[in-house]
Amino acid sequence: MNVSLESDTLTVMKAMKDLNFDVPYGTVVDGIADNVKSNYPDILKKTTIFGFEDVSPAFSAKLAKETTKKLQIEQGAALAYIHIKQMVMALDGCNGDMACVTKKMDNSKSDSIIGFNGFKDRVADFTMQIK
User: Fold this and answer.
1) In sequence order, what are the residues at sequence separation of 6 or more whose Cβ sits closer than 8 angstroms to the Cβ of residue 29?
2) Which string of DSSP letters, residue by residue, matches the chain?
3) DSSP string covering 89-119, please?
4) 121 vs 30: CA distance, rounded Å
5) How many CA atoms lie within 13 Å of 87's alpha carbon, on the beta-carbon side?
6) Burial (Cβ within 10 Å: 0-12, 13-18, ≥19) of residue 114
7) pLDDT tens by residue, 51-80
8) What is the pTM of this model?
9) What are phi and psi of 81, to 5 degrees?
10) What confidence tens digit (pLDDT) does each residue in 77-94 have?
11) What angle do CA 32, 50, 15 make, to 5 degrees?
12) In what order do the strands lie in the sheet with 25-28?
């Protein structure tokens, strides 16, 4: 199991290929960018991947329209978008009252762009995937 970023995933998969090292491998979805998919498809087929759900097609289309270059991993953009939107909505109308802000954050609505289910005991609850 290797919870890593894309560069670490590339390094591990290169070593696995070069050394003919055929072992069960697991990593987070954040480490599986296009270059991992194109360079190591055989290893990837046998890899267990876990993490956030895929970004909704509508949000993915919005990203493609608004950005000048393709993002390798869209989940980070979706997560940032959700939390910034939640913070803006929580700050709106509270006039600096942190108890009000906290209550509004705690009651943030679910958001389907990446499987956000809401906060439970001030911890973000997401639907996760395992492939």
Assistant:
1) 49, 50, 51, 52, 73, 75, 129
2) -B---HHHHHHHHHHHHHTT----EEEEGGG--HHHHHH-HHHHHTEEEEEEPPPPHHHHHHHHHH-SS--S-SHHHHHHHHHHHHHHHHHTTTTT-HHHHHHHHHTPPPBTTTTEEEEETTEEEE-EEE-
3) HHHTTTTT-HHHHHHHHHTPPPBTTTTEEEE
4) 26
5) 6
6) buried
7) 888 889 999 999 888 888 777 778 888 989
8) 0.70
9) -60, -50
10) 898 999 999 999 999 989
11) 45
12) 25-28, 47-52, 128-130
Rg of the chain over all Cα atoms, to the nearest angstrom: 18
d(CA 57, CA 102): 31
The phi and psi torsions of 49 (rounded to 5 degrees) equal: -120, 130
By residue count, the chain amounts to: 131
